[in-house]
Every structure is written in C-alpha cells, then in structure tokens.
Amino acid sequence: MRTSGFFVIRLFAICLASILATGNVMAQPGEVSANGITIAYESFGDPFDETIIMIQGTGATMLHYPVELCEKLAADRFHVIRFDNRDIDPIVPLAAG
Fold first, then answer.
1. What distances in angstroms separate CA 9 from CA 59, 70, 80, one per listed residue?
2. Residue 27 and residue 44 in contact, taking contact as beta carbons nearer than 8 Å
3. What is the C-alpha separation between 69 and 95, in angstroms, rounded?
4. Are 20 and 48 in contact (CB under 8 A)?
5. Could you tell me the pLDDT band of residue 81, with boundaries at 50, 70 and 90?
6. pTM, entire model
7. Coil, strand, or helix at residue 17?
C-alpha cells in the first residue's frame, strides 16, 4: 500500500507542475515512473481545486472514464486525475517473474 500512496502523491505533483508550466488546465497527459514501473495518466481542471482520482478495476484503462465525464467534473471545479493500472497499455509491461 505504501507504493500506491507514493504513486498518488507523485502523480499529483507531476500534474501540478505540468499545468503550472503550460497554463493549460484541460486534458494534460503524462507518465509517472517509480520503482521500475511507468504509468500513464491524464489530468483535467485546476490542481488547486479538490482532487478526484479515478481508479479503474483490474485490466481496465483510464479510457473507461469518458473524457466528457472528466471535463464535466473539471467544469464543476474539481481537479480530475485518471490513470492506467500497472501492466496496461500504454505503460511499460511488467517483467515476468
């Protein structure tokens, strides 16, 4: 569980830095890497608003949460982050073992 918390904190920090650097608050894609794992994400809205992290079930991609839903939540003043689970495209697959 500690690793999961680390990913959430790092993901939020990267989203915030990306949005502040570009000034764009809609559909900011990116990747976060830690402990040899790379996970793709998108963030919507202002990172200073309350954050909603969209967590999908096993084997599902972030695309199962429609862009329209994320944009609607962002329009309602939420910062939305959706991400892919480990070993789901477009992230780097885990090594066997």
1. 23, 20, 14
2. yes
3. 34
4. no
5. very high
6. 0.64
7. helix
Instruction: Dump strand ranges (E) for 25-67.
Output: 28-34, 37-44, 50-54
Length of the chain: 97
Give the pLDDT confidence score for residue 55 in this predicted structure: 87
Q: What is the pLDDT of residues 9-55, one digit of tens each?
A: 666 666 666 555 444 456 788 888 888 888 888 999 988 899 999 98
Could you give the dihedral angle defined by the CA atoms of residues 39, 42, 48 and 50, in that order, rounded to the nearest 10 degrees?
A: -90
Contact of 42 with 27, CB cutoff 8 Å: yes
| Burial class of residue 84 (count of CB atoms within 10 Å of its CB; 0-12, 13-18, 19+) | buried
